[in-house]
Amino acid sequence: MATLTPTIYRSHTLRLTLAKKLDETIETLLPRRCMIISVSLLLAGLGIPLLMCLGLLPVNLLLGLLGFALTATGGVLALTLCGEI
Questions:
Q1: Angle of helix 33-54 relative to helix 61-82, nearest 10 degrees?
Q2: What is the distance between the alpha carbons of residues 36 and 77, in angstroms, rounded to a whole number?
Q3: Every domain of the chain and the residues it spans
Q4: pTM exceeds cut of 0.70
């Protein structure tokens, strides 16, 4: 029967630096939740007037103001959360 010998795990510095680099790369590639929300608000605000022009939605003041409000809110959120303002 073989005896179990405890092995000492040594962390290699190269492995640690590569893991940190990989984590940083993944964090920079993934969009933040606030940016997803602001871009979706912008697209919804631009989509409502487009659907009204195509005749898929009825043309009325409430939908026009809703589209404007969504676009303005998404734009302000995008500028604020990106750090421009």
A1: 150
A2: 10
A3: 32-85
A4: no
CA-to-CA separations, 21 to 9, 10, 26, in angstroms, rounded: 21, 20, 9
User: Which residues are CB-contacts of 83 (< 8 A; sequence separation ≥ 6)?
Assistant: none
**C-alpha–C-alpha distance, residues 37 and 20, integer Å:** 28
Question: b/e per residue, 55-85, with b = 16+ CB within 10 A?
Answer: eeeeeeeeeeeebeebbebbeebbeeeeeee
Task: Report which of 42, 39, 35 is spatially closest to residue 68, judged by C-alpha positions.
Answer: 42
Read off the tokens for 60.
Answer: 């009325």
pLDDT tens column, 39-59: 899 999 999 999 999 999 999
